[in-house]
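User: Can you predict the 3D structure for this chain?
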Amino acid sequence: MTTNEEVIFQLILHAGNGKSSAMEALAAAKNGNFVEAREKLNQAGQELNEAHHIQTSLIQGEVRGEKTEISLLMIHAQDHLMNAITVKDLAAEIIDLNELIKSNGGVRS
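Assistant: Here is the predicted structure, written as structure tokens:
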């Protein structure tokens, strides 16, 4: 396995972990456990930050003239990361709404 493939797999790993944590946050909120939901969202954010650092490193390398091979695997990794970020962002909004509804009947104070 080349170094580029190792970087790609790290990107997929952290994106996948982030998405999984976001889904676990939704499950916790569905069960009314908002403390756990926030912890899982925090974990998701940490994983996605790590993936973002990897992505940024690749982008900065390209800016310096270091060409990154564009492969189907790289495209898959980028797609995986963008979807994971979207899931985390939507999970945060859904959890906020769920907490609002459960805490005061959906009426904003």
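Helices lie at 3-30, 34-63, 72-104. DSSP finds three helices and no strands in the chain.
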